[in-house]
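Work Package 3 (structural annotation) set out to generate three-dimensional models for the target panel prioritized at the project kickoff. During this period the team completed the workflow that converts sequence records into discrete structure tokens, so that structures can be stored uniformly alongside our sequence database. As a representative example, we reproduce one entry of 113 residues exactly as it appears in the project archive.
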Amino acid sequence: MFRRAFWFTAGAAAGVWATTKVNRQLKKLTPESLAAQAADKAVEAGHRLKDFALDVKAGMTQREDELNDALGLHQDPDRPDNVTALPGPRRLRAIQHDKTTPLNVTYNRNEDH
């Protein structure tokens, strides 16, 4: 009698345990649960991508500083965001126009033939 009661109780407990386990797995496979898992993975991947981009940016800044030191280009303290200043007069000469020629000159293609 006790033997039968023991095995009946053990079987019932195993059935309850298996049913609970199966129901948990089925809930993980519902569309809502799958969408939530995909969203969590996407957010996690986004954080990893952001961290990678920040590491790359830091490495680029460090390498740029090393190259600027090696080339003798020193940072101007008046410029923000670690921007290296270009030599002023050289840049101005490149964008100035020749004042002897008028700016409203039209080009006639027929004169070339």
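The chain has a mean pLDDT of 80.
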